Structures are given as C-alpha cells and as structure tokens.
C-alpha cells in the first residue's frame, strides 16, 4: 500500500521527466533517498520532486553527478563547502566560454574571408601556426 503523500518511482519520473533508471542511479550516487517501498516499488516523499530539480539544475549548470554529490546530499542538505565546488565549475565554464569565443571568431573570419579557402588566408595560416605552437607547448615539446 502506497503511503499518503508519497510518490512511487513512476510518479516521480512522470513529475520530473527523469527516467526511473536515472532516479535509481541518483539513489546509488547518494543524491536521492526513497522512504520505503509499496508493491515492490520505491516510494519517495513529495519533496523528492524538488530534490530531483536541484540535481537537474546543477547538471544544467555544468556540474557532473560526482560534483552534485559534493554539493548536496540525498536529503537536500547543502555541503558547507559548496562554494569551493562552484568556484571550480565557474572557472571551467569561463575557460569554455573563452574557447567558444575564439572558435566563433575564427569561424566568422573564415566564412567572411575573401580568400577562396582558409588555407589561402594569411590570418587563418597565422592562427594555425600559433595553435601548432601551443600544442607543442602542451605536449612539452617546446
């Protein structure tokens, strides 16, 4: 018998759009906690909808599930050191933004470039040479 004010795993999946298999995975990762079983199915408190929303929102922000587990526990309590994890994610996002901005600039230039192909463009050739140098630096070949 399902307790009043609880959700089956199917109900939770329907309310959040997260597959039951993913909810079980969240549970194994310590991100979600069932309150019992009814008819062999896991049951959750109503607050589990918000708990899944927290996990999903953090994933949308770019956090891995391992990082999410460092930020919140299965009861939705936030780790006092959450800012440290958030700062690291922010630094990663800023690096990604820089990469995307450079890629966008390069593509915009090559599309608008008057040369028939990028390999005939001196700007593109200079960027290729600079990138080759940075690859060598990262590889320790400099």
Describe the structure concisely.
The protein is 61% helix and 8% strand.
Describe this structure in words.
Helix content is 61%, strand content 8%. The protein has helices spanning 9-16, 20-28, 48-60, 65-71, 82-112, 122-139; strands at 6-8, 36-38, 41-45. The longest helix is centred in the last third of the chain and has 31 residues, at 82-112. It has a three-stranded antiparallel sheet with strand order 1-3-2. It contains six helices and three strands. The chain has 142 residues and is mainly alpha-helical. The mean pLDDT is 91.
Topology:
Blueprint lengths: L5 E3 H8 L3 H9 L7 E3 L2 E5 L2 H13 L4 H7 L10 H31 L9 H18 L3
Antiparallel strand pairs: 1-3, 2-3
Name the features.
142 residues; 3 strands; 8% strand
Helix content: 55-70%
DSSP summary, beta strand count: 3
| Main sheet summary | 3 strands, antiparallel
| Average pLDDT for all residues | 91
